[in-house]
Structure formats: structure tokens, C-alpha cells
Amino acid sequence: MLTRLFALPSLQPVSNRFGFSMTLKELAQILGLSPTTVSRALNGYPEVSESTRRRVAEAATRHNYHPNVQAKRLATGRAMAIGHVIPISTQHEIVNPVFADFIAGAGEVYARAGYDMIISIVADDDEEQAYRTLRSKGNVDGVIVHGPKRGDPRPALLDELGLPYVVHGRVSDYAAPYAWVDVNNTRAFERGTAFLSDLGHRRIALVNGLESMDFAARRREGYEAALAARGLARDPALMTAGEMTEAQGYDAACAMLSLPDPATAFLTSSLLSAMGVRRAIEERGLALGRDVSVLTHDDELSYMKNGTELPIFTATRSSVREAGRICAQMLLDRIAAGPEAPIATRLLEAVLVVGQSTAPARHLIAS
Amino acid sequence: MLTRLFALPSLQPVSNRFGFSMTLKELAQILGLSPTTVSRALNGYPEVSESTRRRVAEAATRHNYHPNVQAKRLATGRAMAIGHVIPISTQHEIVNPVFADFIAGAGEVYARAGYDMIISIVADDDEEQAYRTLRSKGNVDGVIVHGPKRGDPRPALLDELGLPYVVHGRVSDYAAPYAWVDVNNTRAFERGTAFLSDLGHRRIALVNGLESMDFAARRREGYEAALAARGLARDPALMTAGEMTEAQGYDAACAMLSLPDPATAFLTSSLLSAMGVRRAIEERGLALGRDVSVLTHDDELSYMKNGTELPIFTATRSSVREAGRICAQMLLDRIAAGPEAPIATRLLEAVLVVGQSTAPARHLIAS
DNA sequence: CGCGACATCCAAACCGCTTTGGATTGAGTC
DNA sequence: GACTCAATCCAAAGCGGTTTGGATGTCGCG
Q1: Same domain, yes or no: A140 and A157
Q2: B135 and A278: CB-CB below 8 Å?
Q3: Are residues B58 and B131 in the same domain?
């Protein structure tokens, strides 16, 4: 505990129980004004003259005054914070690698708006309870829903709780309208498949993420739609889904390059998988972008660049960080607008960037 | 704004301005007790009989009562929250890839202890101000310092502010005692280098992280110490430092394998770099773990496994997630113990796991 | 000069919880 | 039966802001 050593004979109180920050009351006393006036001056209310407002603002910065957040929250009823609930699966302990970049983007927006970002790590069986207590404790004004699955129960829950939210991704089978920001995964993979098909590839493999995830299911749909449109057969031996690691890509490519009728092109869901595919290709003495083509989706993660100027992999590209910014802004807007306001959605289009990993198909001798 | 549509003729008030959560006062009224007693019952104070305590607890769960966090915080003066300030460098926009796993570990601990984790994304020139306002707004009880650099100013600042903190890593040149949790990077790289030297390698390359970072500087020191101890020359052509990407490893290895006296073994700071090194090796028709050895540091990131059972790369291994847990617990302990309590530190030892990427040195024809 | 309108400021209530300092009750003691 | 003491409970005063409902002063205008 902090003890006040001396009673300073100063007009300015130097210590309170928080020790280091001054209170509104103290500031008011220094200025010879009432707390009311000081509060109003700082919050831009019209009932205070410009001159005193300046005087107050100047004193506030000079004394490094910042209103205590807890008090402000209690008084206004707004938490000035956004929650991100991150489920840690009890089976496979994967922390989503795009998460860091997403919150970097979202965090920028929150910081500018004076909001806090609070992250709850929670075992995925407790997720529902996590949202309920979040609501009931009242420490967030809204939440971002990460990594929606097919049939995800969270939108229904959050609607029931009346907690504003924006989904990063979509929940295909939720009927009621809800706010979301998503990449057009179907279109991206449709275009990717079409691009490879246009290069003459007829054995195009899909190395996908876990298809219980909504985004992965959509990607497969796009892939299949493009195959169908081109009259190409859908071959289960060329389709795999799993956690998007280097090893996944390697293992899948090993298998698919050893088929009697091997893959000549790969569509992967992440750069890591693509790197694994590349390794399997090169291990066979084949050349990436000559013998075998690879096209990947690229989330533009900051620690995982696809080349600097010239892209290494041909890719459908869409920044997760930017998605974070957009999600955050949409949620803040939604909170400001109130529950009756119309619901916004935003579909982002991935751009197709052509790199060095794709080329016209050539006939190969199965190794 | 929420409007109360009907005045329900119920004993139990269903609505307040927060709309969805009930207040202590309401709960007390339902129970026919005073708020004081209810508060004490729920917080485990002895001045309340076991029978009423049970009655209160039961009613609380039945009505899904959770004390409003803001009010609690204001009343107790404790924020019940820990801050993580993440600087986003304005030059190279790297979001540290270990960050996600670290906070996953820390978050588990916070959740168990009833603490919130609040993340501030901030441009790195504003970092000092970020800590000051954090302090002055009073919305955290302490902070974790991420990614310390050589000569990092943050410990001094935080000591000045009187804000409890734990550093993940160390600040070599800060004289005053401070709390930290770190891997023994020096020792890990010393051992790694010695291990490769024991295999007969005399041209051991170091592919390091940016050496302005304290951890990277320590790693180099360990590497150099081992070289010196073995009487091996320190060759600048075999040492590189940069952002730890696949491309970094690839580029470095390309250069170092093309030297007149090429590297026969590599020590890398991350799995990504190691993967790049592997690619350069295989591209030359050499075999990893036969012609050229690679030993990497492995943070055990959840999305970046070094094999499942059998490690792919020989590695010095230390879980960042576990470090997150330890850091968080240390900080909570420190906050509970008060500023006068002795300062704790914790040095974690990396384990050396032998995988398939290292083998005795053999003479190579420079390609 | 008197009056209303407006500008400017303030006292006090309130947000929901904790905690201090009693008040009340009942059992135990002589 | 009076008295002590512990066990239980409560009223009220904070915590540091916001906000309602005036109070006061100033000015313009008939």
C-alpha cells in the first residue's frame, strides 16, 4: 500500500489511492472549478465557454490527467472494450496462425477509437459459457466471432444474449441476418481452379483446410464448381483436407504425385501447405512452375511473405489484417448505431497474383 | 436505448439499464438480504453463516448473476486485467509469429485467475505514451513486456511508473533488478553448436534473428562461445541475421553453400528459416541430414510442428506457450505480493531433440 | 428599468460494487 | 436475570466519473 509520507503544503494533491493518476475532483480543485464543469469541458459539451475549455484542456495535459476508465465505464454503462473469444480446442491444440495478424488490424482500429481489446482464451467446450459471462459481467460492448464452422451455434447465442457481434467469415446455415466480413472464398478458389484449367491442367488437386470450417467448405465448393464448369472429373484422390501445415502439403503432394494419373497442379489453402507441396515436387526432381504448378491462397501474414516484389507462388491474395480492420470498424459502427440499425455485411474479393509457380501443363511420366 | 415496455408485476426485477444482467441489489432484494451480506457471502467473508452463504450462492447461479466488472474494479481499485502492449514497427510490419502462442499460454492462466487480458496495438514510436496512459487510465494491474531489445527503455519506464511487469526475455543492459522469464538462449545455441561440432562439422553457419533483439544477440554469443571453445574460426561469411522467414533461410543457405569453403551445417533461429535452408540444400541435389546438417531452435508453435513423433529437424526446443503461462503466473504473483516483494526470475532450459536433419560431417564438393 | 433569454457554472444523484462501523440477536456464564 | 461475547446481518460511505436539474450572471430589448 502506498503511504503518504508528507503532507505537502501544496494546492495540488499529489497522491490518491491509485497513487499515480489524478482524479477529476483534484483537477477541478486545482482549476477552481466544479467537477461537473471539468467533465463537460473535456467531453466537449456545449455548456462551457471556450476559454475555460481551453484552460481545462491545458491543465489536463499538463498534469497528465486521464479519466479513470473503470469509473467512466460504470457511469456511462459502456465498457469501451471489444471481446475476442479464442477457443483452444481440446483435441488439436492449434492456435489459428492468422489470428495474430487479424487482431493487429483490429487493434489499430480500436486504439484509434479509444477502445480496449480484450482477449479471452477459453477451452472450446466452455465457449458458450464464456459468452454468457462476458455479457453478464458487462466488460465488453461487443465481440468478434472468429473461425466460424458450418452450423456454428454462436450467432444464435449472441443474438439471444443481445450482444453485438461481427463474424469474421460466415455461418452458411444461420438463417437470421447477421453482420459479417468475409473473403469470397468460393470465387477465389473457383478462379484459381479456372486459371489452372486454362493452363491446360486436367489433374488439379485441392489441399484444403479442415472442411468443418466454413471457409474451407466454401473453398471446396468453388473448386468443385470450376471443375464442373470445365467438364473436369472430381476425383476424391486429388482432394484432401486437414490442418494447414507444411507437413500436410508435403504428405498430400507425395501421395498425389504418385498416383497412376498424377496431379499436375495443386491448389492449396495456405502458404505453409504450398511450401510442403513444393518440397514434395522438388524431392522428385521435378521443377515447381515448370513440371508442376502450385496456386495457393495467401492471407498476407506479416511473418509469412509470398516473396517481396515478385510473388513466389501464384496466389489468390487477401489481407487478413485488412479484414481485421474492417471487422473492427463494422462492429464499432454497429455498437454506435444501436441494435435497431440495419445489418452490414462485407464481401472482400481476393486478387489473383501470378507468380513463378504456375505454368502450362506438360505431360509427365509418373515417378 | 433500452426501453422498459411493461412494468412486470413480479417480485424479481427483470430489467435494469444493462438490460441483461442483474445487480447485487436486485439479488439481495430477492433473497430478502442486504447487499452487504450478499456481497460478503459471494466473496467468502467469514461474517456470514454457511446456510445463508449456500442460499446466496444457489440464487446467484440460478439467476446467472455475475458482479458487474466495472463496478467491482472501481470499488476495489484493482483492474483485474493484464496489459500486453504490442508495438507494430513502422518500418518492417512484422507481427511476431510467436505472439499468438504466447498469449494463448498466458490467457489460460489469466482465465483461471479471473483476469482479463487486454492487448494494445500501438505504433512503436508511441509505445512510451501507451504505457503512460495505460497507467494513468488505470485499466491494467500490470503488463507483460514483449520482445525486449538490447538497451530496451521499457523496464526503466515501467519502474518509474510503478506499474508491475514481467519481461518475456531479458534486457541485458538494465542494471536494476527486474522480473523476467527467458529461455537460456545462449546455452541453447552453445549446445547446438557444440553438437554439430561433435559431429565433425567445422563450417557451421548461423542464420539468426535480428540481433537488435536481445534473444538473438544472446544466441550469437552462445554460438561464438562454442566456436571459440572448440578452436573453430568465427567466419562472418557464415553468419547472418534478419527476419526469420523461409526466404531468409533459403537466401542465406544459397550464399553459404556456394562459398569456396561452404557451410556443412546450419544453426537457425526458427523452423521457417530451417525450412528455407532445407530447400536450398535439396535444390543443390544435396540431402538434408546426410550431406548437410541443420539444427534449429523450435518454439513449438502450434501451427508449426517439427514433426509429430519423430522430429524432422534436430532442434533446441522450448515451448513459447509454456513461457506464456509462466510469465503470466509470475506477474499475477507479483501483483498479489505487492511492490516490496522480492523479484522473481526464471531461466528455462531448452531441450535438445535429435531429429533426422543432422549427421556426421562429410567432405563435399562445392557446387 | 424590468424582464426574459441565454450563457455559464454548480450541487447532488447515480452507476454497481466493496467495506467500515455499528446494530441486533442468541447462547453461555456466574 | 444481568452481562459478555460471538455470530450475523445491515446502513451508509466511499470508488471516480457522468448527468440531471437548477442557480447565477449577463445581455438585449421594449
Answers
A1: yes
A2: no
A3: no
Q: Nearest Cβ partner of A279 from B111, B279, B302?
A: B279
List the single best residue of A136, A245, A273, A322 to mutate versus B (max B Cβ within 10 A): A136
Q: Where are the beta strands (DSSP E) in chain A?
A: 81-88, 116-123, 142-145, 165-168, 180-183, 204-208, 239-241, 265-268, 293-298, 314-317, 345-348, 351-353
In this structure, is residue B315 part of a structural domain?
yes
Given this model, what pLDDT does residue A367 score? 43
Whether residue B355 lies inside any domain: the answer is no
Residue B354, in any domain of the structure: no
Looking at residue A42, which CATH number applies to its domain? 1.10.260.40
Domain assignment present for residue B95? The answer is yes
Looking at the structure, do residues A92 and A160 belong to the same domain, yes or no? yes
Same domain, A117 and A235: no
Q: Give the domain range for residue B20.
A: 1-67
Q: What rounded mean pLDDT belongs to chain A?
A: 89
User: What's the pLDDT at B307?
Assistant: 84
Q: Which grid cell is B343?
A: 523479484
Size of the A and B interface in Cβ pairs below 8 Å: 188
- State the CATH number of the domain containing residue A154: 3.40.50.2300
In the structure, how many helices (H) and strands (E) does chain A have?
12, 12
pLDDT of residue A196: 98
> Is the C-beta atom of A39 closer than 7 angstroms to strand D?
yes
Cell numbers that stand for B212 in this block: 537488435
pLDDT digits (tens, 9 = 90+) for B43-63: 988 888 888 899 999 999 998
- Encode pLDDT of A296-308 as tens digits: 999 999 888 898 7
User: How far is it, in rounded angstroms, from Cα B32 to Cα B37?
Assistant: 10
Tell me the pLDDT tens digit for each residue of A208-227.
999 999 999 999 999 999 99
